[in-house]
Amino acid sequence: MTAPFRLYGAELSPYSVKVRAYLGYKGVDFEWLPRTNARQEEFQRYAKLPLIPVLVDADDNALQDSTPIIEKLETDFAENSIVPEEASLAFLSALIEDYADEWVNKAMFHYRWSYPEDQESAAKRITDMIFDGAEKPEGIEEQVRIRMIGRLYHVGSSPETAPLIEGSFARLLGLLNTLLAKRPFLFGGRPSLADFGLAGQLAQLNSDPTPGAILRAQAPNVVRWLERMEKPKAEGPFASFAEVSADFAELLRDEIAGAYLIWMDANARAVANDASGVSVDIGGTNFVQKPQRYAAKAFNELKRKRGLVDDAALAALLAEAGIEAILSAAQQDDGDAADDEVDDEGDGDGEE
């Protein structure tokens, strides 16, 4: 792809701000274009699906979906790479980024549309962006609020699953707060794909009243990292896998193997069987939601990436956490899972 770029997105879309922060880090020329009503016709010329972000290059080539956008740009703009040279560390980064996109997003969407103060704040900010200074139709904020509350089932949020989702969020904050006391970014002196993925979701949580108060009270190191991730700069090299791997053991065991991958495996099986719903026990909670074909495709891509890395230390770390067993036992579904359905980025960013 060729600069300069146009990035169509929204401040309340974790995937849009993820790509925006990445473009800023790479130092490429781009224009940030909020998806307003006035810009809708222009946006539709490039979007295959009504989802953000959309990146358009100087030759009018367009890409959607934050992870493929970043991976494509990494091949075209190699300087200041966000991919560690060690394949084992690069896989950990990809794993944590997908955990952010597919699991932490549930906390983001849950908090934003479950609590009245958060609902009102998000509905106002969304409609402020859409109408961009023009007069809003009467009742439009309430319409947005009701519509998005109705989509909570798409991410598995319900009164029954709320303690699981909120407990997962609190546990992640504690783990990250400890980790980020040691270095400026997750894997050393420069941001990785995992940093951009987690920061996209956690910046949204920090912007909403309820989870933002939790985050600022319990995780000051995470708050400072989020500030760095708004305009990240390399401060040094990546650490080695040997130096940092032990720091991720608890996150890998309790969050990634203990919640995210259990759900991803169950979701992939539901999609493969054309089931109407996903129901799986996670930590003693029956987690129920609509199957997500996009997540099933992402799970297959994660398994593909794991198969490319032959490293004994990585295998030992993943086996101890319980991850290796899930990835090796997971059934394959090599169909194109995302072409006929709105993907998770549409469920979670509130902008489709």
N-to-C order of helices and strands: EHEHEEHHHHHHHHHHEEHHHH
What's the helix count? 16
**CATH topology heading of the largest domain:** Glutathione S-transferase Yfyf (Class Pi), Chain A, domain 2
Strand content: 5-15%
- Which architecture of the largest domain does the CATH hierarchy give at level 2? Up-down Bundle
- Average pLDDT, rounded to a whole number, is 92
Query: Major sheet: order of its strands?
Result: 2-1-3-4
N-to-C span: 25 Å
The CATH class of the largest domain: Mainly Alpha
Shape: globular
- Can you tell me the number of structural domains? 2
- DSSP summary, beta strand count: 6
Low-confidence stretches: 331-352
Question: What characterizes the major β-sheet?
Answer: 4 strands, mixed
Q: What would you report as the Rg, rounded to the nearest angstrom?
A: 19 Å
Helices and strands: which structural class? alpha+beta
Query: Helical residue percent?
Result: 55-70%
Fold and architecture overview:
Residues 3-81 form the GST N-terminal domain. InterPro entries: Glutathione-S-Trfase_C-like (IPR010987), Glutathione-S-Trfase_C_sf (IPR036282), Glutathione_S-Trfase_N (IPR004045), Mito_Protein_Transport_Metaxin (IPR050931), Thioredoxin-like_sf (IPR036249). Residues 102-248 form the GST C-terminal domain. This is Glutathione S-transferase. Residues 333-352 have a biased composition (Acidic residues). This protein is α+β, with helices and mostly antiparallel strands. It folds into 2 domains: 5-76, 3-Layer(aba) Sandwich (Glutaredoxin); 87-349, Up-down Bundle (Glutathione S-transferase Yfyf (Class Pi), Chain A, domain 2), CATH 1.20.1050.10. The chain contains 16 helices and 6 strands. The strands form 2 sheets. It has a 4-stranded mixed sheet with strand order 2-1-3-4, with helices on one face. The chain has a two-stranded antiparallel sheet with strand order 5-6. Strand 5 and strand 6 form a beta hairpin. The longest helix is centred in the first third of the chain and has 28 residues, at 87-114. Residues 331-352 have low confidence and may be disordered.
